[in-house]
Specification:
Blueprint lengths: L20 H18 L28 H6 L21 H16 L10 H10 L1 H7 L3 H19 L7 E3 L11 E3 L5 E4 L5 E3 H18 L1
Antiparallel strand pairs: 1-2, 2-3, 3-4
Helix pairs in contact: 1-4, 1-6, 3-4
Length: about 220
């Protein structure tokens, strides 16, 4: 039997097209988080404590604002290509990265669609509304996922938000039977990373009881 692995995670099988349900949900949440993190950038523009000792007699005055967060807040620049962050001096703005993907998706879709206003909110909304289409047929959706992951990581680093690591649970999913259940710290729900099934804490504990009963009966 041929395994159809998700092109994003390369480990879970997909139910339809090329991206598993877990990564579809992850991409949707990531777009939302990018907007939330972007909104925190203005509060992180002022420079903090210097990392090195000040050189006596230096004539160069310190910059009044942190350059990297300021770069991320710049308007969208039309005409640059992908391969971001490799040969670039400074940070590519969030709006530029999102605008590149909006234009790419519009061209691939070829439906005569107009462009949204080049704001982070409008660009992410446009992408989010077409995310299922991209997961189904876009030939470079794994590249999109990689850039959104990098963008979220960079934004988190500049606003002081640490990566939240989920607690993986050693219980098979009630829907897909895969060992991919996890819980985020502080959340009162359990989610399957493969099929996206959600359980409340009460539902999860009832399910654990049923699984334990089945194991005991088979022993």
């Amino acid at each position: 039997m041929t395994e159809h692995l998700c092109v994003v995670c390369q480990r879970r099988q997909f139910d339809r097209a090329q991206v598993c349900q877990g990564d579809r949900l992850w991409l949707d949440r990531t777009l939302v988080e990018i907007v939330e993190l972007y909104a925190l950038l203005p509060a992180n523009l002022l420079p903090g404590q210097a990392h090195g000792q000040r050189v006596s007699g230096s004539r160069e005055a310190p910059l009044p604002l942190r350059v990297d967060p300021l770069d991320l807040m710049m308007p969208a620049r039309v005409g640059i290509v992908h391969d971001l962050w490799r040969d670039q001096t400074g940070q590519v703005s969030v709006a530029t990265i999102l605008d590149l993907w909006v234009r790419d998706w519009r061209d691939v879709r070829d439906r005569g669609e107009g462009l949204p206003k080049p704001t982070v909110v409008q660009l992410t909304m446009w992408l989010g509304n077409r995310l299922e289409w991209a997961c189904d047929v876009h030939p470079a959706v794994e590249e999109f996922a990689s850039e959104m992951r990098d963008l979220r990581r960079i934004l988190r680093s500049f606003v002081g938000v640490n990566e939240i690591r989920p607690e993986h649970l050693d219980v098979p999913c009630r829907r897909c039977d895969l060992l991919d259940l996890h819980r985020l710290p502080g959340e009162d729900r359990v989610e399957c990373g493969s099929c996206g099934d959600l359980l409340t804490e009460a539902e999860y504990h009832r399910w654990v009881g049923l699984v334990a009963a089945d194991v005991k009966e088979m022993a």
